[in-house]
Amino acid sequence: MRIVVLAGGIGGARFLRGLLKAAPDAEITVVGNTGDDIHLFGLKVCPDLDTVMYTLGGGINEEQGWGRADETFHVKAELAAYGVGPGWFGLGDRDFATHIVRTQMLAAGYPLSAVTEALCDRWKPGVRLLPMSDDRVETHVAVDVDGERKAVHFQEYWVRLRASVDAHAIVPVGAEQAKPAPGVLEAIAEADVVLFPPSNPVVSIGTILAVPGIREAIADAGVPVVGLSPIVGGAPVRGMADKVLAAVGVEATAAAVAAHYGSGLLDGWLVDTVDAAAAAEVEGAGIRCRAVPLMMTDLDATAAMAREALALAEEVRG
Amino acid sequence: MRIVVLAGGIGGARFLRGLLKAAPDAEITVVGNTGDDIHLFGLKVCPDLDTVMYTLGGGINEEQGWGRADETFHVKAELAAYGVGPGWFGLGDRDFATHIVRTQMLAAGYPLSAVTEALCDRWKPGVRLLPMSDDRVETHVAVDVDGERKAVHFQEYWVRLRASVDAHAIVPVGAEQAKPAPGVLEAIAEADVVLFPPSNPVVSIGTILAVPGIREAIADAGVPVVGLSPIVGGAPVRGMADKVLAAVGVEATAAAVAAHYGSGLLDGWLVDTVDAAAAAEVEGAGIRCRAVPLMMTDLDATAAMAREALALAEEVRG
């Protein structure tokens, strides 16, 4: 079975670990969000790709869900001693090496997809990890600072401001001109099922879908497309998805997120058991819906979620 | 008193520490060798400038004489795990931060002299540290590998090969087209004395003198130029200066190095007491010579050497 998964960072990575356990023989292609990539200290940082790579490759800091296990922060402390910022982005020493290798390869002319493949040669994540695009896409967030509206990089909004100010708009700058990375459209065309993990529907999966050709390829693939709600009981399971949902005028409910993806894209939708009452509304919108436990408390619970998603896909396929 | 010092790495840096103690009120400008600069992992590394900066700024690893104190090597280990080399160059985590800042500033358009000044804002070395040039100069060494002559970067010859193969030629590639960095010629013109510390006469001081205009400015400055022999008892005090002296046809003796600089450039020369017999030969070549202890065993011994150099300068001035 060939599965394509659109993934953001922590939520997507953890779901993928469950999927690998639920479907060990599947050929899994992950299309990763690169809209939150950022240049820091002259280095290209790809937080979502790295979170997937480190999580599946066994290098992740399990507690925080991002960054490297057994990490030190000497480079960062020295940069601060030089007065070079930003200090709010937590790059560890081991993590720095990944960005140094990536930046060096990009400078040598390799596209991000080739760089990602080279990095994965080491980590062996057990999936094929593709960036959504080799072109630069950068998610900007419109916020009010001292009474003036300005656009800040998504990481500045998310990490520095902790999404504590209202987001008035979310713009994936460059997305309109971006092309899907080599292999993305082919993987979707050859997929038996497409999954949307409980990643952020706006700044993760939404950004991937904003690359021209990807949404259309998924809609036209003629295979079940099944998503898992990142909203449980009216709040994000983790992260601050409600803040960016508000920016695009979508309520932070499991049903509203399904409607946001829409029945033209989504065939099946899993909501948590606490949101069972929402299932009728989702089904009314033309999307098959099941209520199952959606808390990724451990690997077994996550694998069970992945099995439910695959079962719903088969049910949809009919 | 205004003193200009041409300096390589460890030997130059340690001598400068003694000079600062011997002449605490002097205005010292250091013209640093950049011929052994190297690009590693896409980063610009300036070993000699950093050794001077770290040594005088209190950040040096005292035992090895280069690199940072209290250093860790996580970035390097991770780069090796990615299969990215070279592994023979010992960059520590704290040291990496310096190269990251430097590379970022160079990429933003600052010349190396401005970058060095910015880095020294943090380290406050107590001297004005100038690179010999803002232009790229790279010392290459001609060696025989598997029966074939090829040119390797000086660092490869020095660090990877440990100078264990014969050097047939030493070429400061790019030197002929290089211009002295802003401030270098001015500092020499305004100097009261110019000192050559016991740095490598070929690949450190020789490379600085290979930048058109610097040798001439020193010769024309009309002030005492005094050097300290890096050769004691027929062998280098540290490092492998004898290997590169052989490449340029100069014997590894205190007198031969003085003659190599020449009386057109050098007014005074300090040899170690064990080489007292060589003093007559040096004086015969028109260079005032004194035999004094030249082992930089501690700060006091080094300060005494600096005082001897300044005393010889005054004697030459007459």
TrEMBL record, chains A, B:
This is Phosphoenolpyruvate transferase. It comes from the Bacteria. Belongs to the CofD family. Its EC number is 2.7.8.28. SUPFAM superfamilies: CofD-like. Homodimer. It catalyses: enolpyruvoyl-2-diphospho-5'-guanosine + 7,8-didemethyl-8-hydroxy-5-deazariboflavin = dehydro coenzyme F420-0 + GMP + H(+). GO terms for biological process: F420-0 metabolic process. Keywords: Magnesium, Transferase. It comes from Streptomyces solincola.
